[in-house]
Amino acid sequence: MRYRMIERCRDTFPIRLMCRCLHVSTSGYYDWRDRPLSQRAQDDRRLLESIRKIHDGSDGVMGSPRVWKELRYEGEACGLNRVARLMREQELHGIPQRKRWRKKVCGLRPKNVHNHLQRDFTASEPNSRWVTDITYVRTQESWLYLCVVVDLYSGIVVGWSMSHCQDRQLVLQAVLMALWQREAKTPVILHSDRGCQFTSDEYQRFLQGHNLICSMSAVGSCADNAAAESFFGLLKRERIYRRQYRTRAQARTDIFDYIERFHNPRKRRQLEMRQKQDLGLTKPSGEMG
């Protein structure tokens, strides 16, 4: 620690003076400075370059847990605590989540529509459970409304739409995009809150005509649609709150970039890692005789 302090201040104070004040020998300092880096220090330096690349590539929004996951995807054998230590030493930080709770007015749930998820936001196969919701983005021109459809199996945004109006067409366009990407025609549970766009007759008829099972949250319970709210929290924390949009077109372009060039590719990498791990667990360890 003393030698590092001398190294940091060598351009400001004489080295002999600092060694005398810190009660260390001058020869000991030069021996420490000329000593080659240990293998551990060399690995830390190499790992730090990868950490900086990932952190800069995320526009500075990723913290140590997600940086560590990206390193694992790239084949790095390192622990989470090591990544956290290196980022802390270099003052590399992610963006923490702000907790804000609020209640919003809910519509009446249509008859024969229930909460099929019951806050279980897991799925055993792709395109079996979707969640959808609407959020708004402030621009200097006016509000921009965004509707997304998220696949609970992978976390990928399979459908989205943006408009200056918060109407039924906004929701229908997002669901229609998700349907275009669905390969199989098996039934899918589509969960939402009780907004008027989701309780409308047109929306309900659209779901019935496309083999989608409607699921809705309870009254005044945002936790029932936490998966969609979680995505909006990431989007706003990592991108929207760090920008000032002059026009709705500028906001559209930036949100498209976040979903298709940052969020979805990251979720696909995580899904690929999970599938490789599952394959490794199910693969036999040796040939059967």
TrEMBL record:
GO MF annotation terms: nucleic acid binding
Domain Integrase catalytic span(s) in chain numbering: 122-284
Classification via Pfam families: HTH_21, rve, rve_2
Residues that span the membrane, as ranges: 143-162
Source domain of life: Bacteria
GO BP: any one term: DNA integration
Xref: InterPro entries: HTH-like_dom, Integrase_cat-core, RNaseH-like_sf, RNaseH_sf, Transpos_IS3, Transposase_IS3/IS150/IS904
Alphabetized UniProt keyword annotations: Membrane, Transmembrane, Transmembrane helix
PANTHER family assigned: TRANSPOSASE INSF FOR INSERTION SEQUENCE IS3B-RELATED (PTHR46889), TRANSPOSASE INSO FOR INSERTION SEQUENCE ELEMENT IS911B-RELATED (PTHR46889:SF4)
Protein name, per record: Putative transposase
UniProt source species: Nitrosospira multiformis
